TrEMBL record:
SUPFAM superfamilies: LuxS/MPP-like metallohydrolase (SSF63411). This is Presequence protease, mitochondrial. Residues 526-773 form the Peptidase M16C associated domain. Belongs to the peptidase M16 family. PreP subfamily. It comes from the Eukaryota. GO terms for molecular function: metal ion binding; metalloendopeptidase activity.
């Protein structure tokens, strides 16, 4: 649970990922001493950057209110003892730019600049501008400085996102000089972008003939954002959330899709894009955020000299978000949406939610109170709304807008259900209201209240490796609307105030009464329309036909020439010499070691980690299930998902839910597959248990685990049926948004036991299996299998454990673990290796195409690699990054897909693209990249890939996670040092050799696509494609 009170960082047009992939969480321990090249700009940066003391040894910022430095004035100084933060708010003297700095010992330094952007249409202008600013700037006039910096930096995070009312540009790094490299690029991109028309057409939208130079071919809309939003709005959950927001906030910027609606995006002109930047991207409308152990004085100087000094006066920017004109009575709307990927419950297709507009989000205590109330009402099985709506069977799951949301200027509260029968819609609406009415009279159990407050306490103590990045999103929504962002950091005093309010009277009851008496209430009913996507595609086709018929010869010529020009620009070799770059020679050569102690508790292996965990103990256990009968292994994901949900011992499922929240911060059970670092055919098959507790609750944590393992209340058919329905609904609803994950899992399942098992446990095979057993409805058989799995894992000889805690708590934790383990028998069961039955195919098999209700494609093509310790493994990892650099240009820039590249993990080489309007063109690009890699790789390609890999390889970890992944996979510090050495010594010849060796046409590969229904491909089924409808 976020201690910033909100249930998420940004909602709506969330984190528009300009990189096409999630780039978060990538710090490194490298020491950067100089630049690879030195321009006059870089010399200036070298003068700014000194040898700053770091971490606890840093020179703490010593500023007071009224101090002036580098064009800024200090307006507020506050310490936050509970976070060990020193905070400083400043104002830029000339422009009025707002600045917040958090001084702390965290070496993962963060920068963000945020602009309040309030579009009043759904053309996606803010989103397209976010993309286009990163395509070249005054100081860095190459085509793509942002993506190039990903390969020239050891960043922990680089991204940008468009929210409904602001656009943010954050980055993170542990390295001082790297920080100013990135800062230079980010400042120039946001304040001085080139915003060329070619980049607008590439990133936003354009008209192009299907055959570029053939005006007789079909006219098409193209553009990266255009395709991204087609994919985003194909997801029923995302579509529902967007409609809910727009309908609750009429007359405001929130009534429009800031990401862009594909129907409206083509209406945006290039001039409107430039005007939007000129209006909103001014320092007077900017919010600067810095965090970490680097001195703020350096930041201020650099920002002033490289950006703000060029603005000679303030600017009145009309970015205010008006209040919604409040309704005098509730309203309702009925809408349709694209269908889910599977129609397994044809009678339960409907969604209904009630949303209530609340108050300004600047009242921090109100936000905390409402978030707690939301959790009391809807979170977990021991809450009234869960019992009335889900456990009753009226709905299968909550709608995505359920809960309290204070990410917009005015907050809202919503409750809704999915998987509703048409005849139950009215009853669901009545149930939501009556449940809130009852809670407003009866209040909530004090134990449940304490369990929610305990989660806030745990979240505050739990040390994160990316706290600064979380704060970027968590503080913005309040700050940009005039709130004091520092107030959100004082959780303890707000919790103390809340406790007093609860003790004084019917606090939450009164809050509920306010919601119920609020006439600004919206009821949304949504039903799937199987023809909606086809109808919208036909409408788009008609629009294009109309445009084409109206074109004169000069306009036709312009479209052809612009397409050729863009293609030529995309194919040109970029001169990136002006961009700062870190040298490979500056990467740390020595692998940092993770200290641990291996010992035994009786006969059970235990690994102990002693780290500063801020008063929390983390427990993990791996239970080997290699000898579990194969017919039971298909049920392992269900077992893990249901493990905490059935009740245990004297606790029914509702009481157990409360106890878990009251005494632990984390409890999770999941299937786990890991391959041997020495042999891909050796596969560990396990159930993985992890939990954590504040040190005062260690005994209670192990007590709860013991009850769940020894006395789980599996024999409850009614509850089981209900939970299975919820799982199925959630799984099917998420297929479209998880299309790439399913495609990758299916492709890689053909090579190894690990891949095969991953498909059975996490892929489309698992979805089908779940649907089949639910349709069969033999609950007693399912219960018998779950009990059999539970009985099997009660064997101490199958268990390996780890504990992460502080030295003073180690003995207590070991003592409690010893008592816990004594409850289990020792059957001396040995691990076995289950062999994979390999295919007899000698060439590529037919590609598989799974039709889903989407307007774009998710494509994966996999080849077999090698084990972790093999000398070619490091080379294949570098090759995957080199190939990704090539494919970025072909798939994203030229092809218009949201993202694409190559990954290398678990011995599988995986080509991929997602939210991709193309199919054959992308698969051809995969093949062309292989040909290119066998004789055209450059030294620069290799170095770019190495930097990108070490940004991941040396990623910072929270104390709770240090050493855990290596423990699970059997990787030692010595093995990591060997891999580091190999990664640093790779050359282009080695990459060309492994490309020819592992990616040649004679090697077996498997292609999987999840994409829009395609009659042409369907007609080729069993000839060129294996075409399947998921239903």
């Amino acid at each position: 649970m976020l201690s910033l009170f909100s249930k998420g960082l940004v909602r709506g047009r969330v984190a528009s990922n300009t990189t096409g992939v999630n780039i978060g969480g990538r710090p490194t321990t490298s020491i950067i001493r100089s630049y690879a090249t030195t321009t006059s700009e870089q010399k200036q940066q070298q003068q700014v950057v000194g040898q700053s003391l770091r971490g606890k040894e840093r020179l703490k910022t010593n500023l007071k209110v009224g101090d002036k430095l580098h064009g800024f004035s200090v307006v507020n100084v506050q310490d936050v003892p509970e976070r060990q933060f020193n905070t400083f708010r400043l104002k830029h003297d000339v422009t009025g730019a707002d600045y917040l700095h958090i001084d702390c010992e965290d070496k993962n330094n963060v920068f963000a600049v945020t602009f309040k952007t309030t579009p009043f249409d759904s053309t996606g202008v803010a989103h397209i501008l976010e993309h286009t600013t990163l395509c070249g700037s005054k100081k860095y006039p190459m085509r793509d400085p942002f993506f190039n910096m990903l390969k020239r930096s050891l960043n922990t995070y680089m991204n940008a996102w468009t929210a409904p009312d602001h656009t943010s540009y954050p980055f993170g790094t542990q390295h001082e000089k790297d920080y100013y490299n990135l800062l230079s690029v980010y400042l120039d991109a946001t304040f001085f972008p080139l915003l060329t028309e070619s980049d607008f057409r590439q990133e936003g939208h354009r008209l192009e003939f299907e055959q570029l130079d053939n005006p007789e071919s079909k006219l098409k809309f193209k553009g990266i954002v255009f395709n991204e939003m087609k994919g985003a709005l194909s997801d029923p959950s995302g579509y529902f959330s967007e409609i809910a927001q727009q309908s609750l906030y009429p007359g405001t910027t929130y009534a429009h899709n800031s990401g862009g609606d594909p129907k409206d995006i083509p209406a945006l002109s290039y001039q409107q894009l430039k005007d939007f930047h000129a209006t909103y991207y001014h320092p007077s409308n900017a919010f600067f955020f810095t965090y970490g152990d680097l001195p703020v004085e350096q930041h201020l100087r650099y920002i002033e000299e490289n950006a703000l000094q060029h603005f000679k006066s303030p600017k009145q920017v009309d970015s205010k978000v008006n209040h919604v004109q409040r309704w005098d009575k509730p309203r309702r709307i009925t809408v349709t949406c694209p269908p889910s990927a599977m129609d397994v419950n044809p009678e339960r297709k409907h969604k209904l939610s009630i949303s209530i507009l609340h108050k300004d989000n600047t009242d921090i205590f109100e936000g905390l109170s409402m978030n707690v109330l939301s959790n009391l009402l809807i979170r977990g099985s021991n809450t009234p709304m869960y019992q009335a709506l889900l456990e009753s069977g009226l709905a299968l799951d909550y709608t995505p807008n359920t809960g309290f949301d204070d990410n917009l200027h005015e907050s809202s509260f919503g409750v809704g259900g999915t998987g509703i029968r048409k005849e139950d819609l009215e009853k669901v609406e009545q149930t939501i209201i009556s449940t809130m009415e009852k809670a407003s009279r009866d209040g909530f159990d004090s134990n449940v209240i304490e369990s929610i407050l305990h989660q806030y306490e745990f979240g505050q103590k739990d040390v994160s490796a990316s706290l600064g990045l979380k704060l970027v999103g968590g503080l913005q929504s309040n700050w940009i609307h005039g709130g004091n962002p520092i107030n959100r950091l004082f959780l303890n005093e707000n919790i103390a105030r809340l406790r007093k309010e609860i003790a004084a009277g019917p606090f939450f009851q009164n809050k509920l009464r306010q919601l119920l008496d609020n006439p600004h209430r919206l009821t949304i009913t949504m039903s799937p329309d199987d023809t909606q996507q086809a109808r919208e595609a036909a409408e788009e086709e008609n629009v294009l036909l109309g445009i084409k018929s109206s074109l004169d010869s000069k306009q036709v010529e312009t479209i052809v020439e612009q397409a050729k020009d863009l293609q030529q620009r995309q194919s040109q070799q970029q001169d990136v010499s002006s961009l700062p770059k870190l040298s490979i020679s500056e990467i740390e050569k020595k692998q940092q070691k993770t200290p641990f102690i291996d010992e035994k508790i009786g006969s059970t292996d235990l690994r102990l980690f002693d780290f500063p965990t801020n008063g929390i103990t983390y427990f993990r256990s791996m239970i080997d299930i290699s000898t579990l009968p194969e017919d039971l292994k298909m049920y392992v994901p269900l077992f893990c998902s249901l493990f905490e949900s059935m009740g245990a011992a004297e606790l029914d499922h509702k009481q157990l839910d409360t106890e878990i929240n009251l005494y632990t911060g984390r409890m999770n059970v999941s299937p786990m597959i890991s391959t041997s670092p020495f042999n891909l055919d050796l596969v560990a098959e396990r159930i993985y248990i992890k939990s954590a507790a504040i040190n005062r609750n260690i005994e209670k944590m192990f007590s709860l685990l013991k009850k769940m393992m020894l006395e789980n209340r599996w024999n409850n058919p009614d509850l089981l049926k209900n939970l299975l329905g919820q799982m199925q609904s959630s799984m099917i609803e998420g297929i479209t948004s998880s299309g790439l994950s399913y495609a990758r899992t299916y492709s890689s399942s053909q090579f190894s036991r690990a891949g095969q098992l991953s498909e059975k446990w996490h892929g489309l095979t698992h979805v089908k299996f779940t649907n089949d057993i639910i349709a069969k409805n033999d609950l007693n058989d399912i219960i018998a299998k779950l009990i059999a799995i539970n009985k099997f894992i009660l064997d101490r000889s199958l268990m390996r454990c780890s504990i992460t805690t502080e030295k003073d708590t180690t003995e207590l934790a070991k003592q409690q673990l010893s008592m816990f383990l004594q409850q289990f028998n020792e059957n001396h069961t040995s691990m076995v290796n289950n062999e994979f039955q390999k295919s007899d195919n000698t060439g590529s098999s037919l590609p598989h195409y799974f039709a889903i209700p989407a307007t774009v494609n998710y494509i994966s093509k996999s080849y077999q690699g090698v084990n972790y310790s093999h000398e070619d493994s490091a080379r294949l990892e570098v090759l995957s990054k080199v190939l990704s650099e090539y494919l970025h240009k072909e798939i994203r820039e030229k092809g218009g897909a949201y993202g694409g590249g190559v990954s290398y993990a678990s011995g599988s080489i995986g080509f991929y693209s997602y939210r991709d309007p193309n199919l054959a063109k992308t698969i051809n690009a995969f093949n062309e990249s292989i040909e290119w890699s066998q004789d055209k790789i450059t030294l620069e390609n290799v170095e770019n890939a190495q930097l990108s890999i070490f940004a991941d390889f040396d990623a910072p970890e929270s104390p709770s996670n240090k050493g855990v992944a290596e423990w699970m996979r059997g990787i030692t510090d010595e093995m990591k040092q060997q891999r580091r050495d190999r990664l640093l010594s790779i050359n282009k010849n080695q990459l060309e050799e492994v490309s020819a060796k592992y990616l040649n046409p004679q090697k077996t590969s498997y292609t999987t696509v999840l994409g829009k229904p395609d009659t042409e491909i369907k007609g080729l089924s069993n000839k060129e494609w294996e075409y399947k409808e998921l239903n």
